[in-house]
Every structure is written in C-alpha cells, then in structure tokens.
Amino acid sequence: MHEGNFTKEIVGVILDELKKYPDAKPKAIKVLVGEILHLVPASVQMHYQFLTQGTDLEGVVLELTQTPVVVRCSQCRSEGTVEDHHLLFCSYCHSSDVEIISGNDVRIESIEAEIESN
Known about the structure:
Layout (H helix, E strand, L loop, with lengths): L1 H17 L5 E11 L6 H11 L9 E7 L2 E4 L5 E3 L16 E5 L3 E10 L3
Helix pairs in contact: 1-2
C-alpha cells in the first residue's frame, strides 16, 4: 500500500506550492508517474480524496498519467522502452546491463488554477 505514502507526499508538495499563490483556486492537477513504481490509480485516487478533505484541493481533479520505462543499454548504447518493466533488458541486443532513463520518477506536470479577484 505505498499509494498512501505516495499520495500524501504529492498532496503536501502541491499544498506547499499553492501557498505561494494565495489568490489561486486550483481546478485540476496533472501528475506523471513512472510505470516502474507500480501504483494502482484507483487506490491513489481514493487516498487523494481522503487526504484533500477540508483543504484547498478538496474536489480538485487529480489526473495521473503513467510514463513508460525507458532504458539506455551499456552494451549497444541503444535507448528504448522495455517489454516488461519487471525485467529490464535492452530490446535491441537483450543485454541486462541497462540504465533507467525514465519511468521511475514522479513529476507534477501542471496545476491548473483560477485567480480569484478581490
């Protein structure tokens, strides 16, 4: 159940960022999540709804987009996605000597908000 800890961290980062813009009313949040993290989107959404109750994020849409694992092969220097993110092999020469380039990170892509005028 690492979705709970993941979601708690994301909500905290977003709320901290919103403190910089006190007149902003958030409408939607877009988060990119690497597939290697094995997050269950429905579980993240459930935790998000619970954690945002009574905050500026209550009722704000959370959109999760999974990003594929991309590796660079140390043997043939090729870059590309993997067939199975549980087994990291180069899809060209099949070497297991690969470096993960993306797909193992989390990024807040955007926070869509309206500015409330006084």
